[in-house]
Specification:
289 residues, mainly alpha
Length: 289
């Protein structure tokens, strides 16, 4: 409100004059603040042209392995079979991730399951030949079972011992999925098959760990990258063979004659080799045995 007529201004009551002066000052202050805000926004708009843009949620992870890399690796692993992917998994995008992340998952899964199969294959042979530790298995002094049929041997182990074994497996699985600044997840640019080191301290395990699960004695510390790559290829091939081997053992045991090369070599087994417990732990609450 601006009062230009001095006569009118003089005739106004004192309270009205004070109100008019306050309104005039407020209007000027508001205009000044708006000019400052406009200048700041202009600077911010110009600076945003030089600011890094936020990455899209679907941005591909920085993984070097693609389908072309798998095809090249397949030739090195098995020149006769080469690249074999009848389900086109190498072109998939699991769980809405990128194709590179999916390939990382598939590569890591094969390496991990190959390692487990190698443990299982060697363990099967060890138990089938009656090799066991000489000390007691339990705190009550019970010895290790004398059974030489590996699946039947597993059935003789107590439920508490099985839970201890699976608890350790669950911890190792949990630790393998960690993604830290020093260890990238295999689906986010990390190396498939690389198991993170055990870390002690506030951000790790609350007690010292003398050895790591992968390469505990640091044999590969001074190994060249070419030799590491060659050994990884050997590990993948051995893992594939071990997966066929352990399932060959179990198939012949449960379906006699299914693997002619193993007929008369492995003992028959009439149990359920895929059931880890004597009772159906998950199905029991629903009346399933």
């Amino acid at each position: 409100v601006e009062l230009q007529d001095a006569t009118t201004w003089a005739t106004l009551p004192r309270d009205n004059r004070l109100a008019a002066q306050y309104s005039k000052r407020s209007s000027r202050n508001l205009q000044s603040k708006m000019k400052i805000a406009a200048a700041v926004l202009a600077l911010a708009a110009s600076a945003s042209a030089f600011a890094p843009q936020r990455a899209s949620p679907r941005t591909s992870v920085a993984v070097s392995e693609t389908k072309a890399d798998l095809e090249a690796m397949a030739k090195k692993l098995n020149p006769i079979v080469g690249f074999y992917d009848p389900l086109n998994l190498a072109e998939a995008e699991f769980w809405g991730t990128s194709n590179e992340a999916t390939i990382g998952f598939l590569r890591h899964s094969e390496i991990k399951h190959g390692r487990i199969a190698m443990f299982a294959f060697v363990g099967y042979i060890v138990h089938a030949n009656g090799i066991k530790f000489p000390w007691a298995m339990s705190m009550d002094g019970s010895p290790f079972p004398a059974e030489t049929n590996p699946p039947a041997l597993w059935d003789t182990i107590s439920e508490s011992a099985k839970w201890q074994i699976f608890s350790l497996i669950a911890f190792l699985e949990f630790w393998s999925e960690l993604s830290t600044p020093s260890h990238k997840h295999y689906m986010a640019g990390g190396k498939p098959g690389d198991y993170p080191d055990f870390v002690s301290g506030p951000e790790g395990i609350p007690h010292p760990i003398p050895f790591n699960l992968y390469d505990p004695f640091k044999f590969s510390k001074n190994m060249s990258e070419e030799k590491k790559e060659s050994r990884l290829r050997a590990e993948i091939n051995n893992g594939r063979l071990a997966m066929l081997g352990i399932f060959g053992f179990l198939s012949e045991q449960t379906a006699s004659g299914s693997v002619p090369l193993l007929s008369g070599i492995v003992s028959p087994y009439d149990g359920e080799p895929m059931a880890p417990f004597a009772t159906n732990v998950l199905g029991a609450p629903f009346g399933l045995n």
